[in-house]
Amino acid sequence: MSAARRDVRITVNGRTYAVSVEPRLLLVDFLRHECGLTGTHVGCAHGVCGACTVVLDGASVRSCLTFAVQADNSEITTVEGLADGESLNALQRAFHENHALQCGYCTPGFLMSLTEFLRETPDPSEAEIRERLSGNLCRCTGYANIVRAVQAAVQEM
Amino acid sequence: MSTSDTATDAGTWVGRTVPRKEDQRLLRGFGTYIDDVPEPRGTLHLAMLRSPYAHARILSIDTSEAEALDGVVAVVTGADIAELIPPFAADYEKPGFKVSHRSALAPDTVRFVGDGVALVLAENAYIAEDALGLIFADYEPLPSVADVEDALKPDAPRIHADLDDNILIEGGNKTDGFDEVFEAADNILRERFRVNRVAGTAMEPRGCLAVYEKADDSVTLWTGTQVPHLLRVGIARYLGWSESQLRVVAPDVGGGFGPKMYLYPEELLTVAMARQYRSPVKWIEDRLEDFLTTFHARDHVYDVAVAYNNDGTVQAVEVDVLVNSGAYSNYPMGVNLEPFQGPLNMPGPYRFRQFAYTTKGVATNTCSTGAFRGVSAPCVTFAMEGMMDRIARHLGIDRVDVRRRNIVRPDEFPYVNVVNQLYVSGSYVECMDRALEIVDYENYLANQPPERLVDGKYRGIGIAVVTELGGQGAARYKARSLPDLPGFDTAHVELEPNGRILATTSFASQGQGHETTFAQIIADELGVSIGDITIRGGDTENSPFGTGTFASRGAVVAGGAVMRASGDLREKVKKFAAHLLEASADDIVLEDGHAHVQGVREMRVSLYEVARAAYGLTDSMQLPEGEEFGLEAIATYDPPASSISNACHVACVAVDAATGLVEVERYIVVHDCGRVVNPLLVKGQVQGGVAQGLGQALFEEVLYDSDGQLLSATLMDYLVPTALDVPTLEMEHIESPATDNIGGFKGAGEGGVIGALPAIACAVGDALVAFGGNVNRLPLRPDAVLELIEGGNGA
Amino acid sequence: MKPAPFEYFVPEAADEALALMAEHGLEARPLAGGQSLVPLINMRMAQPGVLIDLNRCAEFAYLREDGDALVSGPMTRQRELELSPIVRRHCPLIAKAMPHMGHATIRNRGTAGGSLSHADPSAELPGVAVAMDAELIAGGPNGRRAIPATEFYLAELTTALEPEEMLCEIRFPKATENSRASFAEVGSHFGGLAIVGVAGQVEISASGHCNKVALAATGAGERPMRLTSAEALLTGQVLDERIIPDAAEAAAADVEPLEDLHASAHWRRRAVVAMTAQALREIASQGVG
């Protein structure tokens, strides 16, 4: 059985993509394969690891648990939309300076979750930071340097 | 560019905290992991039909409906490819080792849940998975066994019918005079330790993209591997191809940790199918497949007996090791690694002179097990440190004193231990003393009530003195009967015509930071900034042959090769510079991207000018006599046997008396990996390693039921540490440089895990000392801990 | 892990959604936040032929006071329940429980109705609904009917909803001024999935006596369960250390835990005791009305 394709208009990092998709196409596959934005990664495809986190209409979401059709007429920011040209943003810079990434696979998901977090919680405690980070899994860093990076970014922002 | 690239402080690059060069692309989402490699037009997506049975005979496979589905190009079974991809096996000679074969797709018998039965090639991954549901395979279930001890029983189902039993490898040894010393000791303590099966759980699952090159009948395989060169050797060998027909490229890899150092069926299948169908073929593992088929680790049983005197000195140690090897032996390690590394690592920092062991690697109807950060070292260290605490409790001596009486002392280096490991240098006592100082051990003890219970929590402290085997070279691998591990690595360093430096190594990177650390080493050798250096690797076509990335060998072996090659290049640069400056090469100093005459800084040429001359890009001929055009050097490095790092880990835990939930409240590491290339990155390795060890100690566990069905197949069931589990380490370094390798470096990748299992287990044991304090199996999940509290377990 | 094909409808009105449910019956699944359903779809453990996406049904997303009740639409996001001042004011138990549910990113998308209908025995919101005696309003071909939360949960992942029915509204009774609430839970580690939780809401008189006690446990049976023995023991008593341990112990008899790979049945029972004590202590620490 194949279901009818649907036309969608989705704006990603300021650019609008008007395409026709199968309803079952996951948003993360749309971003990666239709838009070529491969910075958003699939770590588990069941909503636990957070590697695929993007910001959809201002709110962080798991792009592996959302269908592309559901993002019709929405605006999405992915990791590729964070830096201002050549300059990393404050959070990215803090990740770099504090060695908050190793293999880097989970990193885009952390950055997108934290982008929303720091907007909502500009002066977080360490406990609040760790609570927020607990929604994303990292297998390399042991998290300490991610906590440091968030604290450093808060100082700078 | 990274802000650090322009740093020009005096002093060397090695030893400095430098943020990583690779971050720039990874933070922007510009990393290229396997699924990000651009797919050529017409790429076929491969999906695997996997066995739902732990052990079964395949009776029939009906592929007709799947083949009829729109978008499906082919459905292939084990029978179809039996000749194209013959069964493969680690087939070396070693007493006690039996060769067992694995087929990329099972032709007749499946041996674990997840074993490949058929594959689909389709125009996209969604359709490929649709087609899997339309393949109808009939099986005759066979008796199966998942537990290692059950597999040893005489009536156990045989995993490989052509073998006499399920023992894939066995061995043992005993020092001369062992029995006498063992019998003569004042006390003998016996204990059984069980170490849980875990999964590496790299955040990026495996994957491959095999691209057929019509022009020369070759295949380029992009794959998420730690060992591109070894894979090319293995694939060419098993497919009967020439190596020039195959290029293996490891792109950015989202975590390795050991499981990605093996040749997997999907790598053979994508390569063979790409050539067969003259098309690019891609397979991306999903998380369920990762838990089912990416090699697991541990699942060991250790029966330990320690003979010790009343003063706490250990006289002799005996261990019988059982390793659940899973269904198949694998390339390039066979099943040799875990069973023998356990005994090798057992003595650790201790001086006892009598040792006996037996060891077995046993086949079961489960996923293969293999290397994972630390291999057997975390397990045997958990056992040894557990024994040290038990000895202390039995004798009423403080656990620190028991350790102090047994560990290698500062004046004993170089020291050769009971299994012939050479410790050229180390700081075993110093690390322990410093760690105890940081935690304020005396004060901790003074404030700790005998029953340990304060405000509903039992609190305890655990100490682990740890050695880490790293940087192994050819001599060690040959002594361990690992013929498919060469042991050396290689670097090629060149000064490009524009005066910048490009180095390619035989290594592949999975996040270790080689682009930064190797650049630091080269920067010192050539007097340039790391911003002027590009490091590449992971591509058999563009990088020299070598062993690859595993077993904490980066700094020692690849770093050594980089150092040698850039040293050779330095001498060539000096000759060209000397010619240009009309000076003697011996008087040339390389500094700040220039060559100048010693003592006369104004007499200088830039590396750009040197490069132009060396590549003949000048008005007149500038070739020194006896030199050839070009500025490049290639060097291998094969270190002596191995480097042994050391550390002391101290964990402070709180055990909730009502739920058994363990919280690690403080964690201290004093760490010695010889000369440190980049303290920031070493700390990152240790913190990350401790996190993985904490996970294994407290809650990670791969579970099979008695029918061999995998129960922990998702991240909801296989639990990985979060930011709320792992404390920020309090960490210090002591540097005892290796005296027998070129850089003075020692390995730093695995010590974190090795220390965390024993430190946390001992801390929980201390917290529960009122109930016996004997932790002898992991993980310490809340229900298991509550059982210790409620049941006690006798001291 | 790619979803099987499905037919997709995205109704913009509640009636339209209900009509689609009636039309497609057993084949159809309503798609709310998708945080539980889509993982199952990705793993092909659920392969609905028809998905009825409720995310564009504006009339399903609301939160308002209605007399003695706080009323939520099924598509109200969990994040809104967590942050809403009226929830905090009138149903403090919900506000206390929400931060425990999944993670912020999950709650951004996850909905009240989705979690309540999914009926995971370890989920927090069903426990809260059972503790609060919420009313779940089902809508279907024969109109709407109210189901008490205590009767809504039949077994693991099984509710009293008929195949063509859908949860259309949730009515939480407002807590009285002198009600105190707490939610406590525990898992195998920190920051991961919870295994056992206890939701508690206690009305405490000016004299410090418990007028009305409501306690419910999650993860300790096939469905959320009221801790009736503990409730009975506490009613009329002063909530302090003289009674909390006994009440918590009494809760052990109220649950029917099962063993799975995460924890033994025995541990779950002990965890109910521990979480009951923790929730009651937290309530006691909030002072009297």
Structure commentary:
The complex is a heterotrimer of chains A (157), B (795) and C (289). Chain A has 157 residues and is an alpha+beta fold. Helices cover 32% and strands 17% of the residues of chain A. The model of chain A has no long low-confidence stretch (mean pLDDT 97). Chain B is α+β, with helices and mostly antiparallel strands and 795 residues long. Chain B is built from 20 helices and 29 strands. In chain B, the strands form seven sheets. A seven-stranded mixed beta sheet of chain B has the order 3-5-1-12-9-10-11, sandwiched between helices. In chain B, strands 7-15-14-13-8 form a five-stranded mixed beta sheet, with helices on both faces. In chain B, helix 9 packs parallel to helix 10 (377-395), helix 10 packs parallel to helix 19 and helix 18 (679-698) packs across helix 19 (751-767). Chain B starts with 22 loop residues before the first helix and ends with a helix. With 289 residues, chain C is an alpha+beta fold. Chain C has twelve helices and 14 strands. Chain C has helices at residues 14-24, 37-42, 78-83, 85-90, 92-97, 104-109, 112-118, 124-131, 149-152, 228-234, 244-251, 265-285, and strands spanning 7-9, 28-31, 50-53, 63-66, 69-72, 135-140, 143-148, 153-155, 158-159, 166-173, 179-187, 194-204, 210-218, 225-226. The chains are: A alpha+beta (157), B alpha+beta (795), C alpha+beta (289). The interface between A and C is medium-sized, with 33 and 31 residues.
Which fold does the CATH topology of the largest domain in chain C refer to? Uridine Diphospho-n-acetylenolpyruvylglucosamine Reductase, domain 3
Overall number of strands of chain B: 29
Approximate strand percentage of chain B: 25-35%
Please tell me the total number of domains of chain C.
Answer: 3
Structural class of chain B: alpha+beta
Structural class of chain C: alpha+beta
What is the total number of structural domains of chain B? 3
Rounded Rg of chain B: 28 Å
Q: Which pair of chains forms the biggest interface, and how many residues does each contribute?
A: A-B, 55 and 59 residues
The separation of the N and C termini of chain C measures 53 Å
Average pLDDT of chain C, to the nearest integer? 97
Distance between the termini of chain B: 59 Å
User: Number of helical runs of chain B?
Assistant: 20
CATH superfamily of the largest domain in chain B, called what? Answer: Aldehyde oxidase/xanthine dehydrogenase, molybdopterin binding domain
Query: For the CA atoms, what is the radius of gyration of chain C?
Result: 19 Å
Largest sheet of chain C: 5 strands, antiparallel
Which assembly state applies to the chains in this document?
heterotrimer
CATH top level of the largest domain in chain C is Alpha Beta
